[in-house]
Specification:
heterodimer; A: alpha+beta; Phenylalanyl-tRNA Synthetase, Chain B, domain 1; 6 domains; 17 helices; 42 strands; B: about 350 residues; BirA Bifunctional Protein, domain 2; 2 domains; about 40% helix
Chain lengths: ~800, ~350
């Protein structure tokens, strides 16, 4: 909503500056987002008094004047206007001033005479088309005064963020009500300059048909239209609007069209009531019908677009065809043009839901539909018909014919609210005084009557559709006192009975672990193109290539890694903790009786590493790149962080998937090689992805102290030659079985294939340490165990000890 | 000779002596330097000792300590240099300590995570716990239970990504309020961080997915003063001592509703382009939970009252780290992530 500071002052006198007004409205009812000086382009213009005007010696149409512009010296100014007269005030642009349109005033010689500035015409100041002469000012002002201060031209536009509940603030009158209540002023509607006093007697009836002048009006769609009033004006003259009207509309950012259209716009901006003027002669059989759409109806609207009326729209038709989409946009067939002399003026209250549905189907929003879908004040209609008719007569002439008709078949009854002051006090946390409540609510048009002890009956004014219950009144009471007036001292509270969500701790541990491992967390968008794994489609996606919700996180991380590669960043270590989505048959019964199908969600963690394993250091100019063993460790450590105490196994898989991550016997994720769209210099990429919700978190394993051994250990290295068909895991199992309880550690420390090792074999070397808890082991004991291990390996796996 | 003249000589000797010692390149030249400075016969220091008697008797004590200090300094320096030269000449090399450390890759939390964790930290001290909820929601949880009138202009602020009939990506984290109230008895004090979605095209200030953090407090007699006090406390903890203001707002699920502003973090209240000259910055929306929301979740709205708030950690992260374009937060450029990590 754009509001004009001066227009507001026409409704209620106040002395606040625009800045103060901004603070008042913001703290009281609606945030003022911006203040815009409306004629800031005239800031350099001052009031100048022509002290002397003489004919230019070298010209028969120029004048040489002496101008007092408040500078202390008289300035010589050459002027070409025929109407320049000594001892008169004119707008004056001194040297250095910039005029609308960007013209900069400079000191120059005009036919040999110096000119130090310019006396301005109305057109040069963008104040009308008058260019016959300079603009003589019939005001009292000291020379040098800023033109904007001396003339009622400067204005400030307030850009106000009116929230959807406060439709009453979508007009100057509505804003003025709040200002009046805050400043103790009284709202009065601006006077209309009338040549003769006109008396309009609107004929209000509880009926669905009636007539005004020769026009028959029928209200058929009583659901779509709650109240419909119409007036007829004949013999008017369509033309330019008077200056004051143009200026009002300009101040709120609206362009002047013609006097009749401008008058209806003035009513919309001034009073929040959209109105529509039809060219009466274009309405077939002088009939106006408010009805539903009939089958496939077409209409060309004011914007020149041919539209099909949406089913369910409210239509204003004549005896033959649709002439307007009610509350949204008029038809061009009955548009007011320069040739129009007779109009039918519509002033109505339409059903907000119907207007909203239709304008959404049409995909348009107009100033009118914006107000109708938020609700207009139906009770204000008779007085606004009166005002609008008189305004049109004042700016376009003509005669009001007959009494305006006002069809209001089902008048809305006010719904009083019982207000328990004690409850409001409890909700607000501070005492609420009956006198204060009464005073404040009355100041904004509420009516109040006592109902019982500590209970009052409150009737909201007709323009406050949003106030329906006690909670709404609590807000009024709080905001009228001022939110800042409430205490902000912490009071005692009870701790939450709600435990942390089960995943919270796991997420924290996993994040900690991956950050500690040198990975960077990302929070990318979860949308992907259609591909395997993504099964949940967005019904109304922003783009077709992002129409799906991902079924895994690594797809997203691969995309992010490619984004980095495209920027020449090859060292990429990313992780994300986020949601994967899966289509499911999971039905959800809603409390309203419906059953819907919800996707299944999994909170997952994924990580991707590629490039150097560590930053470059002079001790190692070419660090190794990440490989399978790094991702294996990251998968193990991440799984351990997610599920501490659970049994973890990394089970070899096939293809690009290297391992399945198995927790307590259940596959909860993978570690894998990744295929990227990567440049040749890029290093291989590896990823892991775990489902954090795969198993219920088990209670953490109890860790107990074991005595730190005081006895020495015995170490044995075993270099083995194994057929490549035998796995390290098989060999370890045999070693552990034969070594028995005294084996303390078992470490694989070498793998070798090549010279000295037969084809089809590899060499693997383990370091074994043995320790007895109570005594020193004898060499014989260690040797015996080692021999048993070697024999078993030979016998069971065909693995032999490597000689030299 | 006066004491200050003497002092001047001592200082000069110290400066020149150090230079001379450091200039020595081998044991022989170092010995030369030693002799010229400390040599008993012609050393400059012994020469200086010989000047002592020319001072006034009362100044002897101080002059003596000055000259002894220089002697000690030069001797130490000589020994250091001797060891340096020795190390350099032997095969065993000292390491060059000016060379860079062996670094490891630096991991990092996402800036939005950092903001969320900091907010959680403050509210945990006030007895709040953390609740989570699904990102795909039903219309009922996302709108109906939260008192959105059907087909109302309030919905225009929640352009929705639908997944099917009655199912959508949640447009805010507020459905978690309903789920929590359905499953737990008051006192409820929860924070709910998570992703929310709107059908907004991706540009410098909009993203179709964004982080939100929601708070809810429900108990017997929780009041607007509690709301104001808690959020003011939070603002002072989070932004450092700051002015706050509350102004009327509208959310279908709260009544009264309030927006909280803090002093503009850039101009500190004096007004700048970033706050449009107001001196204030909008931080969060809040309000007293609407009774019909409490009832919809199955609690007794006559007995229980409560307040709620919601805010956007991404916006706060942008403020805090001076990030001009919201897409930077989603792009995952490692160069940006490192900047925040350091």
């Amino acid at each position: 909503m754009n509001a004009s500071y001066e227009w507001l002052r026409a409704f209620v006198p106040f002395t606040l500056t625009p800045g103060e007004l901004r603070d008042l409205l913001t703290s009281r009812c609606a945030t003022v987002d911006d203040l815009v000086a409306v004629r800031e382009d005239l800031r350099d213009v001052v009031i100048g008094r022509v002290v002397e005007a003489a004919k230019h010696p070298n010209s028969d149409h120029l004048w040489v004047t002496k101008v007092d512009a408040g500078t202390g010296a008289l300035l010589e100014v050459v002027c070409g206007a025929p109407n320049v007269v000594a001892n008169t005030l004119y707008p004056f642009a001194p040297v250095g001033a910039v005029l609308p349109g960007g013209i900069k005033i400079e000191k120059r010689k005009i036919r040999g005479e110096t000119s130090e500035g310019m006396l301005c015409s109305a057109r040069e100041l963008g104040l009308g088309q008058d260019h016959a002469g300079i603009m003589a000012l019939d005001i009292e002002a000291k020379p040098g005064t800023r033109f904007l201060e001396a003339m009622p031209i400067g204005d400030t536009r307030l850009v106000i963020d009116v929230l959807p509940n406060r439709s009453d603030l979508l007009s100057h009158e509505g804003l003025a009500r709040e200002i009046a209540a805050a400043t103790g002023g009284v709202v009065t509607r601006p006077e209309i300059a009338e040549e003769k006093q006109v008396v309009i007697r609107t004929h209000s009836v509880k009926a669905t048909s009636g007539s005004v002048g020769n026009v028959t009006v029928r209200l058929e769609d009583t659901d779509g239209c709650l109240r419909y009033a119409g007036a007829v004006i004949t013999g008017l003259k369509v033309g330019p609007s008077p200056e004051w009207l143009v200026r009002r509309l300009e101040a709120v950012g609206s362009r002047s069209i013609n006097n009749v259209v401008d008058a209806t716009n003035y009513m919309l901006q001034g009073f929040g009531q959209p109105m529509h003027a039809f060219d009466l002669q274009k309405l077939a059989r002088a009939t106006v019908v408010v009805r539903k759409t009939r089958g496939e109806e077409l209409i060309r609207t004011l914007d020149g677009v041919d539209r099909t009326l949406p089913p369910g729209a409210v239509v204003i038709g004549d005896a033959e065809r649709a002439q307007a989409i009610a509350g949204i946009i008029g038809g061009s067939g009955s548009e007011v043009t320069d040739a129009t002399t007779d109009i039918f003026l519509e002033v109505a209250a339409f059903n907000p839901t119907r207007i909203r549905a239709a304008r959404r189907t049409l995909g348009i929003s107009t100033d009118a539909s914006y107000r109708f879908e938020r609700g207009v004040d139906a009770e204000a209609i008779p007085s606004l018909v009166d005002y609008a008719v008189r305004l049109i007569l004042s700016v376009a002439g003509g005669n009001a014919v007959g009494n305006p008709i006002d069809l209001y078949p089902l008048p809305k009854k006010p719904q009083p609210i019982s207000l328990k002051l004690a409850r409001v006090a409890r909700l607000l946390g501070e005492p609420v005084d009956a006198g204060e409540v009464e005073r404040n609510l009355r100041s904004i048009g509420f009516r109040i009557a006592p109902e019982a002890k500590d209970i009052v009956k409150v009737s909201p004014p007709s323009w406050r559709h949003d106030v329906r219950g006690e909670a709404d009144l609590a807000e009024e009471i709080a905001r009228l006192r001022g939110y800042d007036a409430f205490s902000s001292e912490l009071r005692p509270f009870r701790a939450s009975s709600v435990p942390d969500a089960p995943l919270v701790a796991a997420i924290k541990r996993v994040r900690e672990s991956l950050v500690g491992a040198g990975l960077n967390e990302v929070r990318p968008l979860p949308f992907v193109a259609e591909r395997k794994g993504a099964t949940v489609r967005v019904a109304n996606p922003l783009a077709e290539d992002e129409a799906f919700l991902r079924g895994d996180l690594l797809t997203t991380l691969v995309g992010r890694a490619e984004h980095n590669l495209a920027r020449m960043q090859g060292n990429v270590r990313l992780f994300e903790i986020g949601t994967a989505f899966f289509a499911s048959d999971r039905l959800s019964n809603l409390p309203d009786g419906r059953t819907v199908r919800l996707p299944r969600e999994e909170m997952r963690v994924a990580a991707l590493v590629m490039g150097q394993r560590s930053p470059t250091h002079f001790t190692r100019p070419n660090p190794e790149s990440f490989d399978e063993w790094d991702i294996k460790y990251l998968a193990e450590s991440t799984a351990a962080a997610a599920f501490p105490g659970a049994e973890l196994r990394m089970v070899p898989a096939s293809g690009q998937t290297l391992w399945d991550v198995v927790i307590d016997g259940k596959v909860i994720g993978i570690a894998r090689r990744l295929t990227l769209d990567a440049p040749v210099w890029a290093k291989p990429a590896f990823g892991l992805e775990l489902n954090l919700e795969a198993i219920e978190e088990s209670p953490p394993r109890r860790r107990t102290y074991r005595p730190i051994p005081a006895t020495p250990r015995a170490q044995v290295d075993l270099a083995l030659v194994a057929p490549t068909t035998v796995t390290a895991a098989q060999i370890e199992a045999v070693i552990r079985k034969e070594a028995g309880d005294l084996l303390e550690t078992l470490t694989l420390f070498d793998e070798f294939v090549g010279q000295g090792i037969p084809e089809g074999s590899r060499s693997l070397a383990w370091a074994l340490t043995f320790r007895h808890p109570d005594r020193t082991l004898k060499d014989k004991e260690v040797q015996g165990r080692t021999e048993r291990i070697v024999q078993a390996l030979q016998g069971e796996l065909g693995v032999r000890q490597r000689t030299s | 000779m006066t004491l200050s003249e003497f002092q001047q000589l001592v200082t000069t000797l110290a400066d020149e002596g150090v230079k001379l010692i450091d200039a020595a390149v081998n044991a022989a030249s170092l010995e030369e330097a030693r002799t010229s400075l400390l040599g008993r016969k012609s050393g400059r220091l012994p020469d200086l000792f010989k000047q002592l008697p020319s001072l006034a008797p009362g100044e002897l004590r101080e002059a003596g300590s000055l000259i002894n200090a220089v002697k000690a300094k030069l001797e130490t320096r000589l020994e250091e240099r001797r060891r340096q030269l020795e190390a350099a000449s032997s095969s065993k090399r000292e390491i060059d300590l000016t060379m860079p450390a062996r670094r490891q890759w630096l991991g990092s939390r996402h800036p939005v995570t950092l903001v969320i964790e900091e907010i959680e930290e403050i509210f945990r001290e006030l007895g709040f716990t953390i609740a989570l909820g699904p990102e795909a929601e039903t219309e009922w949880y996302n709108f109906t239970a939260l008192n959105f009138p059907p087909d109302h202009p309030a919905l225009d602020l929640h352009d929705t990504l639908y997944l099917g009939e009655g199912v959508m990506l949640r447009t805010h984290t507020s459905p978690v309020q309903i789920r929590t109230m359905q499953n737990h008895k008051p006192p409820i004090r929860i924070l709910s961080p998570g992703n929310a979605y709107r059908r907004d095209f991706f540009d410098a200030s909009h993203a179709p997915m964004f982080a939100q953090i929601e708070g809810l407090a429900i108990d017997d007699g929780v009041s607007f003063v509690d709301l104001k006090a808690t959020l003011t406390h939070f603002a002072n903890r989070f932004f450092g001592k700051t002015k706050t203001r509350f102004r009327p707002s509208y959310f279908p699920f709260t009544e009264p509703s309030a927006e909280m502003d803090v002093e503009c973090q850039l101009c500190h209240g004096t007004g700048c382009p970033s706050c449009k000259g107001t001196g204030w910055m909008e931080i969060l929306g809040s309000g007293m939970v609407h009774p019909s929301v409490i009832s919809a979740a199955g609690l007794d709205a006559d007995r229980y009252t409560g307040w709620a708030f919601g805010m956007g950690p991404a916006r706060i992260a942008m403020l805090r780290y001076d990030i001009p374009d919201i897409r930077i937060l989603y792009d995952s450029d490692v160069r940006f992530l490192y900047q925040i990590a350091r």
